[in-house]
Amino acid sequence: MSRPIIAILRGLQPTEAEAVGRVIIDAGIDQIEVPLNSPDPLESIGQLASAFGDKALVGAGTVLTVEQAEDVALVGGKLIVSPNYDAEVIARSVALNMQSWPGVFTPTEAFAALKAGASGLKLFPGVMAGTSGLAALRPVLPKGTLVYAVGGAGPENFGAWIAAGADGFGIGSALYKPGMSLSEIADRAQQIVSAYDSAIG
């Protein structure tokens, strides 16, 4: 069962990429984002895409430019996540057959991102919008729009966010921080999956 959860591996080292990816995928999370402000991110993304590209959606986060999106495509990435709305980044990502998930916070940004071709919307920072913010935004979005809450959404409040209209989540430090052992990452991934499964009933 695929779950709408993106693992955000900020600070991942290429030397641990494959091992970390494996325990996360084994736990039931099959979307992985390596933010571009990590050490040698393209190398890590390339390793993950090569090892798991047939069973996981792998790509980059903190993608701010068209050139960065193109670099991710060259190493086999299929997912582009940004903290902001940038029409050119969205259009180029989609043209390269990658999913584009721009960060939005307002209805204006949300509609502009969808018009530019975004695959889905990253409500960011989720902690600022809150579940009430999403609940207010959700009714005006076109039917079928996917919204993932990122920042302030996690296993302790999945249920509240889902009730507010979240379709999925991006999970960062609750899942992975540099220096964590594989067993701790595996435990956290399993807890996150269990919490999500419980929240959706």
Give a description of the structure:
- This protein has a single domain, classed as Alpha-Beta Barrel (TIM Barrel).
- Helix content is 45%, strand content 16%.
- It is built from 8 helices and 9 strands.
- Strand 2, helix 2 (41-52) and strand 3 (57-61) form a beta-alpha-beta unit.
The rounded distance between the terminal residues' Cα atoms is 14 Å
CATH class: Alpha Beta
- The number of domains: 1
Largest sheet: 9 strands, parallel
Could you say what the CATH topology is called?
Answer: TIM Barrel
Q: Work out the radius of gyration.
A: 16 Å
Give the structural class: alpha/beta
Taken as a percent bin, the fraction of beta residues is 15-25%
Would you identify the CATH architecture? Alpha-Beta Barrel
Oligomer: single chain
Extended strand count: 9
Q: How many DSSP H or I helices?
A: 8
Considering the protein shown, what is the CATH homologous superfamily? Aldolase class I
What is the average per-residue confidence, as pLDDT, rounded to a whole number?
98
Q: If strands are numbered along the chain, what order do they take across the biggest sheet?
A: 5-4-3-2-1-9-8-7-6
Helix content: 40-55%
Extract low-pLDDT stretches. Answer: none
Helix and strand pattern: EHEHEHEHEEHEHEHEH
What key phrases describe this protein's structure?
201 residues; alpha/beta; TIM Barrel; 9-stranded parallel beta sheet; 8 helices; 9 strands
